[in-house]
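Wait, mind explaining this?

_____
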Amino acid sequence: MDEPEEERVFQRVYSTFGSHAAYGVFDDAKPFLKWCMRHGIACGVLSNADERYGDSILPMLGLSDHMQFFTFSKNAGVEKPGKEIFDAAIQDAQPWLCLGNKRSDIKQLMPEEVLHIGNDYQKDYVGATSAGFHAVLLDRYDEKEVAKGWREGGAPVFKDLIDVVEWLGREQYELGSRESVRFEPS
């Protein structure tokens, strides 16, 4: 392949991954994000993807309006599972905790008040828990052996975000939020 042809191939792949063609939204994503908003929980994206994900892909999918902050590895200078990117996410989330509170009521968000939801054992579960976060993993594609390994490694594993909401209720977690929400079973 000559250089001009390589450039055409690159541009085609790059444009495909910047369009709807390469992405979709799981049915539970928007209801979960709306539930979090109703409960005063700040939600964000912590990703090793480039910032184009937050600038164009999430808005294109109709998800960015439900997110309060975005932390990308390029901006943080380190990828998951590095502790520094999780620390950066706490800093990015902090301004959203003051909504509806008096300035004097705002406390520093602590890692143990954060739940990280991911789909990679090393990057998401080990990275988040090593940084002091709570963490769960989603097995969206019913990969039984992979999920079994995650569970054996100590990770709570769920099929979807609705299961996460139910688990939060059962566990009665108290996570950092605008109102320091305590999850009680309903």
